[in-house]
Amino acid sequence: MTKSALQIARAAYQPKVPAALKGAVKAVEGATTQSVADQEEIKKLFPNTYGMPIITFEKSDETFSSPAIHVGVILSGGQAPGGHNVISGLFDGLKAINPDSRLYGFLMGPGGLVDHKYKELTADIIDEYRNTGGFDMIGSGRTKLEETSQYDKGLEILKQLNISALVIIGGDDSNTNACVLAEYYKANNTGIQVIGCPKTIDGDLKNEQIETSFGFDTACKVYSEVIGNIERDCNSARKYWHFIKLMGRSASHIALECALQTQPNVCIISEEVEAKKQSLDDIVNYIAGVVAQRAENGNNFGTVLIPEGLIEFIPAMKNLISELNDFLAHNEEEFKQVDRTEQRAYIISKLSKENADLYASLPEGVARQLSLDRDPHGNVQVSLIETEKLLAEMVGNRLAEWKKEGKYNGKFVSLVHFFGYEGRCAAPSNYDADYCYSLGYTASCLIAAGKTGYMSSVRNTTAPADQWIAGGIPVTMMMNMEKRHREMKPVIQKALVKLDGAPFKAFAANRENWAVNTKYVYPGPIQYFGPTEVCDQTTKTLALEQAK
User: Fold this and answer.
1) What are 113-145's pLDDT values in tens digits?
2) Nearest-angstrom CA–CA distance, 527 and 512
3) Distance CA 489, CA 508 (A)
4) Residue 526 reports pLDDT greater than 70
5) pLDDT value of residue 66
6) pLDDT band at 368 (very low <50, low <70, confident <90, very high)
7) Which string of DSSP letters, residue by residue, matches 209-229?
8) CA nearest to 147, candidates 173, 125, 180
9) What is the C-alpha to C-alpha distance for residues 4 and 17, in angstroms, rounded to an integer?
10) Rounded CA gap, 410 and 436, in Å?
11) Would residue 339 show up in a list of annotated catalytic residues for this protein?
12) Which of 38, 288, 291, 371 could form a disulfide with 398 if both were Cys (CB 3.0 to 4.6 A apart)?
């Protein structure tokens, strides 16, 4: 395989780790825990793994020999920068426990466990992938581990390979599945431990013990570099409004972080839209107002950041989608018989007045996406809705109306972008390379301590790595009950942007200035070599949350 100069230099990078992980460690147990909500229901569902203490690892003076351990590892869900370093840290940790320990990677996600597809991860393989992006070492997949038949099928191969612990690297759903699996294996006395690692570029898997999910730092730096490049182009040509949609289906952490890094003219935060019960019309008027205000100053250009999941946070749009889903689920055959040119009018005639008016106000392309592109359950595929095009078109229409009324006299030309997959497999930043390696190494320590149903945790990460705190948090501690597919299920509570949190407050205090004035910041590409203040900086979100 041909390697770039950066790949070759990056392979030699030695991730920084907490001082406690250098040498022998001991597990220190804290107080017992409880779930964030629905304590009685969660306790009933997880009698064997509920209420366990938080674990912190400290340096130990004792040296003791440990038998070799065989461990399996799975990459689950969407990719995130740093996954390979989690596996590298896990591998090195297991070898430090006993050089004869072995690590097996299950291929293409949880499906590899069920289908018995795996490969042993040797030093040669691991060394090829240190400090690299992507999940291509063993691949990833979105198979959900939900059925006892899957757990039993997985148990067959685990027993066959003499594996006593499984590490699942994934987001909130994957770690919920890991917790259910840990409970099942414990209840059935299988002797299999299950440990999770917090992964998602969306940044919505976090709490007091899990400061951030890995990959968020790198992805936001990648997106911010490109947004900064667009802002510089925008400020050079001075004739375009750029509408940029960013990943983040369930939360706006990426949009907020990129706004803090680049200072665009507009950034919409879905959680604020929902809290203020804003309509699509409110959002269009707000953006158009900023465009008009800048035009008065002779600035017919700007940048707008939009989170991917915005549509689902607009209460009126949520109601429309709900009614559409319900109607089309019950009238699919009749709808298919309607001539394509008549479908829009047909749907308008069948909806309630409020939803019919909203549907009629949408551009043709978006209206079609809402009524035609369904998932296997018959629901609108919201992630396919081109919100950036929707807003650009509706803002253009609003400005044209204002021009006729004499309220606006500028020029408006829009360009649209969606940054998503570009950030998921980037070479990890120093922060993510260090954080991920530490998460993997910590997972090996949790296994050695005999723990199951825990998520690997590394905290205090705005301090130098020596001062980071490694440990484990019971997954049940993060859970609550939520309705999924019409049933109440235990799930890890998603962390949304807190409107009373320091990151949002910092953004809100500056956005009026950024809207009218051109205050762009150009972060440039991720730096891997050089002064620590450039190469090892954390996200603005984390720095503000920890007041550093």
Assistant:
1) 999 999 999 999 999 999 999 999 999 999 999
2) 31
3) 35
4) yes
5) 87
6) confident
7) S----BTHHHHHHHHHHHHHH
8) 180
9) 26
10) 49
11) no
12) 288
Q: How far is the C-alpha of 317 from the C-alpha of 310, rounded, in Å?
A: 10
Residue type, 391: L
Whole-number Å distance between alpha carbons of 198 and 475: 10
- For 316, the token pair is 């009126």
pLDDT at 202 over 90: yes
The yes-or-no verdict on residue 484 having pLDDT over 80 is no
Interatomic CA distance for residues 169 and 218, integer angstroms = 17
Single-letter residue type at 262: T
Burial class (CB in 10 A: 0-12, 13-18, 19+), 139: middle
User: What is the arithmetic mean of pLDDT over 486-494?
Assistant: 91
- Taking the C-alpha atoms of residue 524 and residue 179, their distance in angstroms, rounded to an integer, is 40
Q: Which of 307, 355, 308, 302 is CA-nearest to residue 328?
A: 355
Is 547 or 526 the better-scoring residue by pLDDT?
526
Is the Cβ–Cβ distance between 215 and 433 less than 8 Å? no
Take residue 524 and report the two structure tokens written for it: 């440039």
Tell me: the pLDDT tens digits for 369-381? 887 766 666 667 7
* Residue among 92, 172, 173, 202 flagged as catalytic: 202
Average pLDDT, the chain: 95
Instruction: State the Cα–Cα distance between residues 263 and 268, nearest whole angstrom.
Output: 12
Could you tell me the two tokens for 200?
Answer: 């998602």
pLDDT band at 112 (very low <50, low <70, confident <90, very high): very high
DSSP state of 30: -
Ranges assigned E (strand) in 153-201: 165-170, 193-198
Alpha carbon of 516 to those of 6, 95, 261, 276, 311: distances in Å?
Answer: 40, 57, 18, 23, 26
Please tell me the distance from the alpha carbon of residue 220 to that of residue 460, in angstroms, as a whole number: 20
3-state secondary structure of 403: helix
Q: Which helix (H) or strand (E) holds 118?
A: strand 118-120
Let me know if 343 is exposed, middle or buried by CB neighbors in 10 A (0-12, 13-18, 19+): middle
Q: What is the DSSP string of 108-121?
A: TTHHHHHTT-EEE-
